[in-house]
Give the backbone structure.
Amino acid sequence: MSGRWKQQGARRLGISICGVVMLTSMQAGACAEPSQELYIRIAEIEIDAARVDEYKAAVKEEIEGSIRLESGVLALYAVHDKHNPARVRVFEIYADEAAYQAHIRTPHFAKYKAAVQDIVKSLNLLETAPIALGSRSRVNAGANAP
């Protein structure tokens, strides 16, 4: 299989995963036409493979703070490729663009950026448009994830 074909397959897989995650991003039991005001981004991040645990701790702390302290942050999900933990995707859903702009000016986000500046090798931010969003609530979803 050629490198180009693998890259396209990986991108398709990433887009599919994004769709699944976005479908699980709203309130429990909700399934509705999304508001045009929602601001949704996907961060594609490559990190130093030797510092995966350090990155995981920093992003977990940042997400927990954002969800707890910011009403405009509706959902943040950080996941990594099962076969390459240095490939991270963060799915971000904000009430609107103003909520996103407020988020990136918070002390906890600044702390995260400072903590990972030497760990992150590349960052690609994708702005997306919602099609349909829905979820089923799970208490401590991902709590047992590695």
